[in-house]
Amino acid sequence: MKKRAFSFFICICVALSLLIFSAPAVSAADIYQGKIEVGTVEGITGDIVAVPIKLTENPGIMAVTVSITYDPEVLKYKGAYYGDIFNDYTIANHPDRKLIRLVICEMRNKTNDGNIIILKFQVKDNAKAELTKIGLEYSRGDFCNWNLDKIMPTVTPGGINVAFNGENCPHKNYGKWTVVSKPTCVDKGLNERVCELCGHKEYKDTDPIGHTYSDKWTVDRPATAEKEGTMSRYCIRCDDYVDRVSFSLEQSEENNIGNDIWSELPDNSVGDELFKEQFPDEELTPNQEKPQDSLPDVEDIIGEIIPEAETPDGENVSVLDKIAEAFPNYATWLKILIIAIVVLLILILV
After folding, report:
1. Quick check: helix, strand or coil at residue 297?
2. Percent of the chain with pLDDT over 90
3. CB under 8 Å to 78, separation ≥6 — which residues?
4. What is the pLDDT of residues 116-146, one digit of tens each?
5. pLDDT tens across 162-196, in order?
6. Buried b (16+ CB within 10 A) or exposed e, 126-152
7. Which element (helix H / strand E) includes 336?
8. Strands of 218-221's sheet, edge to edge?
9. d(C-alpha 57, C-alpha 33), whole Å
């Protein structure tokens, strides 16, 4: 527990200090572990573009402090989305110094591969048709694990290939929405779809999914002869917890509580009874997960039912769009009809 508290204190100090000051380059004599790749994506002027930063061959990382470099004359930073590995981020944009400071501090090693983070930029109107680079810089000690060992990953920079394609495109031939970043318990996700005529990308946020608390009780502080232990019910996706109760070493022995940190109790009733004793006027926190959308997007349904047609010039156009131009209220009534049909089918199937 002392090591854990110490590492958490170190992370706080790092977050407060290194968000302000940029980091020097890594020495060539250092030994590297893991690989970081900044994504290279396409974009046109005015586009909102998502750039993933991916970690592979992860040796086990608890804390990260890095500088993400970019050209604020070409790109405008618009925000960030969680990746697949870490949950605890602190981000500060410094356009005057052409970088974004990213600090990550977890309570334990994260060992899976995936996106560290996904950054959102807008390509400015004055951007030239070329690759605008996005890099990642750090110094020795800016990556560490639970044991405070220094991790030195290799870095491959990327960026945004700016192209002037699609300035006059109506962007009506979009493909289906795909997931760029999954929503977390408390943060939004990001979906995208691509215009099949010019490659223009459109983005939309998806709502957080909310916490889902396990029925199992987890020991987060073992009991000793001098101090009581604690147990809580943790979210199945993150480190959020509810319904924390305390127990003595004697209670641990009497109820066969596995008195090891992060161990789950095999019998839920032990924790439930302790909660009733310590909080007689309260109820256990219920599952707070939000229901996921089960119906398909109405636009996708209409696109499947009403196909495209080819003009004499060889261009594919949406029949629905042409009908809507001739009859402005037609599209609205058609959508209502489609929704009614879908609801009717659901009622029949149920």
Report:
1. coil
2. 51
3. 48, 120, 121, 122
4. 999 999 999 888 878 999 999 999 999 999 9
5. 875 555 566 667 889 999 999 999 999 999 998 87
6. ebeeeebebebbbbeebbbbbeeeebb
7. helix 330-349
8. 218-221, 229-234, 241-247
9. 8
Please give the backbone phi and psi of residue 141, each rounded to the nearest 5 degrees, phi first: 100, -5
Mean pLDDT of 86-106: 94
What the block records as the tokens of 224 is 């000793």
**Total Cβ atoms within 10 A of residue 312:** 5
For residues 61 and 108, the answer to whether their CB atoms sit within 8 Å is no
Strand residue runs (E) in the chain? 35-38, 40-43, 48-56, 61-69, 75-82, 89-94, 99-110, 114-123, 131-137, 143-144, 154-156, 158-162, 178-181, 189-194, 201-206, 218-221, 229-234, 241-247, 308-310, 316-318
Tokens 């215009």 -> residue:
195
Q: How far apart are CA 260 and CA 247, in angstroms?
A: 13
| Residue-by-residue DSSP string for 21-70 | SPPPPPPTTSPP-SEEEE-EEEE-TT-EEEEEEEEES---EEEEEEEEE-
181, 189 Cβ separation under 8 angstroms: yes
What are the Cα distances from residue 143, in Å, to 17, 29, 40, 261?
15, 16, 23, 25
- Asked if residue 313 lies in contact with residue 272, where contact means CB atoms within 8 angstroms, the answer is no
48 or 307, greater pLDDT:
48
Distance from the first to the final alpha carbon of the chain: 53
pLDDT tier, 22 (very low <50, low <70, confident <90, very high otherwise): very low
Distance CA 167, CA 171 (A): 10
Q: Which of 191, 189, 182, 167 is nearest to 47 (CA)?
A: 167
Cβ–Cβ under 8 Å, residues 255 and 240: no
Q: Given the structure tokens 């994506």, which residue do they identify?
A: 41
pLDDT of residue 126: 80
Give CA–CA dist 289/309, Å, rounded. Answer: 43
Q: What is the pTM of this model?
A: 0.56
